[in-house]
Design goal:
It is a single chain. With about 280 residues, the chain is an alpha/beta fold. It has a domain of about 180 residues: Rossmann fold, CATH 3.40.50.1220. It is about 30% helix and about 15% strand. It is built from 10 helices and 9 strands. A 6-stranded parallel beta sheet has the order 3-2-1-7-8-9, sandwiched between helices. The longest helix has 16 residues. The structure holds zinc ion. The site of zinc ion has 7 residues, from loops.
Length: about 280
């Protein structure tokens, strides 16, 4: 089955907006009628989100996060098992600092719209590459599965046993120790050189294969294996919707490309699809 990309809708600037009001958030996004119709018919929808939706909440991307004290380190030097073994304290403190940045951020209208969408569709799966937990904080994962491909920075696990630990004793000499085996504790995120949690990846692939509409939101569609999820959906005949500020390698394959912020596109999609109680 081939897909002919439909012309991307042009954002319309409201008349009342001041001429220099920047951000594409202020634009009214017109959702293609064919997409609205497909959403009304759809039994199964899958969504993949990446760093773009977190950036709209003010969370710097992995690379941009390296400021101040941390600017002399490259993420590749901190987010690896080797780095942790060499200097567990440094790595633990880097994550503590990132956790602090994230705790100050709030879910944006894009996160909230996705949480609402899971209550509107018979089968809905949200797959995220983000580790910040903003989807949960927005209310996602209650009525439908939420798959975290790269883990969650708020969770901690034992480096020895690989099991998630809920409670531990803080220490002056971090990282804290596992209450079960005394091993080091580490953030429950996927580091460079580590495989994705296979159950999460398998569930994401199953959702991509089963869905009728696949949304790729705020992701460069470059990082494997997540990058192959939209293609998996396409091969099964799904409609591919890309929401991104910029074109990506995926854009030529998209049935619909909405060149705008998730925080603008998703609330518009929600409103325009379900406003008539459909
Ligand atoms: Zn342990």
């Amino acid at each position: 089955m081939t897909h002919t990309p439909e012309p991307a809708p042009q954002p319309i600037q409201p008349d009342s907006a001041p001429p220099d009001s920047d951000t594409r958030r202020d634009f009214i996004v017109e959702i293609p009628p064919a997409l609205i119709e497909a959403l009304h018919r759809a039994r199964s929808v899958a969504v993949l989100t990446g760093a773009g939706i977190s950036a709209e909440s003010g969370i710097p991307t992995f690379r941009d996060a390296q400021t101040g004290l941390w600017s002399r380190y490259r993420p590749e030097e901190l987010a690896t098992p080797a780095a942790f073994e060499q200097n567990p304290r440094l790595v633990w403190e880097w994550y503590a600092w990132r956790r602090e940045l994230i705790s100050r951020a709030r879910p944006n209208p894009g996160h909230l719209a996705l949480a609402e969408m899971e209550t509107r569709l018979p089968h809905f799966t949200l797959i995220t590459q983000n580790v910040d937990g903003l989807h949960q904080r927005a209310g996602s994962g209650k009525a439908a599965p939420l798959i975290e491909l790269h883990g969650n920075i708020q969770r901690v696990k034992c480096y020895q046993e690989n099991r998630v630990v809920d409670r531990w004793q803080e220490t002056d000499d971090p990282p804290p120790r596992c209450p079960h085996c005394g091993g080091w504790l580490r953030p429950d995120v996927v580091w460079f050189g580590e495989p994705l949690p296979w159950e999460a990846l398998a569930a994401a692939q199953a959702a991509a294969r089963a869905c009728e509409i696949f949304f790729s939101i705020g992701t460069s569609a470059l990082v494997e294996p997540a990058a192959s999820l939209p293609l998996l959906a396409l091969r099964r005949g799904a409609r591919l919707v890309e929401i991104n500020l910029h074109e990506t390698p995926l854009t030529p394959h998209a049935t619909h490309f909405l060149p705008c912020a998730a925080g603008a596109a998703l609330p518009a999609l929600l409103r325009q699809t379900w406003s008539q109680g459909g």
